[in-house]
Amino acid sequence: MRELPTPTQPLFDSLPNGLSGHSARRRLHRQQPAQAHEQGHEQPAFSVAWARHQDEVVEAQRLRYKVFAEEMGARLNPSTPELDVDMFDAYCDHLIVRDMTTLKVVGTYRVMAPHQAKRIGCLYAESEFDLVRLAHLKPKMVELGRSCVHRDYRSGSVIMALWGGLGEYLQRWGIESMLGCASVPMSDGGHYAASLYRVFAERALAPIEYHAFPRLALPIDELNQTLEVEPPALIKGYLRLGARICGMPAWDPDFNVADFLTLLRVNDMNPRYARHFLGLNRGA
What we know:
Elements: E1 28-29, H1 34-39, E2 45-50, H2 54-71, E3 93-99, E4 105-112, H3 114-120, E5 129-130, E6 141-149, H4 157-173, E7 177-185, H5 191-203, E8 213-214, H6 233-241, E9 244-245, E10 250-252, E11 257-265, H7 271-278
Parallel strand pairs: 6-7
Antiparallel strand pairs: 1-2, 2-3, 3-4, 4-6, 5-8, 7-11, 9-11, 10-11
C-alpha cells in the first residue's frame, strides 16, 4: 500500500458488476479509448499471476523504478541501475500484471506473508511506525507495498486485476488483515497532508487500540490543517473498501511523502467488495 502519489486508478471506479477474485485471474481486456471503439480495434488482454522466478521479480522492480523514481522523483539510490530493490523484496511474493500483446509487466504489488515477516524480523512499516498495538494481528496479517501501474495503463483494468489476485491470496492463506503505508505528496511542504489528517481524524481513523506511532512524525501542528482537501484516489479506494487510518502520518524524506499507515481487516470489508474480490456474501 505504498503509493506515490496515486500511480493507480481508484478501485471503486473500475469495478464491473459480478467481478470475483476468481474471475479477476482470467485474462482481462484493457478498457478501450474512444478512438479504438470507433475504429473497432480489439485491445490486448492482460494476465495476472505471482512471479515464479527472479527474472519476473526484476521486471516488477524495473516498473517500480520507472514509476517511483523517474515519474515521481523518489530518491531510491538503487544498488542495481534502474531497479527499485530493497531488503524486503527477497521475502515477498510479487503479483504482476502482464500485457499479453507486448508481454510487458504493467502493474505490480508486493506482499509479505506472516511467516516471511517473522523470518526477516520486521515489516517495512516498522521502519516508519511503532506497531506495538498491532502485534497481535501479525500471525494472520500481510503487508502490502510498492503497488504501481505503468503510466500508459491506468484505465482501471490493471488495478482491478491486481486486487482480484490479492483477494484469492487472502482466501488461500486465511489472511484476516492487510497493512501498508499509503503515501501522499509533500510538494507543498506538507500542508495538504496535514489537512488530510484532519479529514481522516474526523471520519476515517481506526479505533485507538489499532493506532501506530510514527518514528519521524509529520509536524502537523506547525502546518496548515484547514485546507479543503480530498484524499488521493487510491487512498479513497482503500477507505471505500473499509480500511482505516492508524493515526498520525510519518514523514518519509527519501520519497518526500507523508505516509498514513492503513489497516484493512477482512471482517470490516465493505460487503459489496467482499463479494467482488473474496466471494463472500455476508451482509447486504
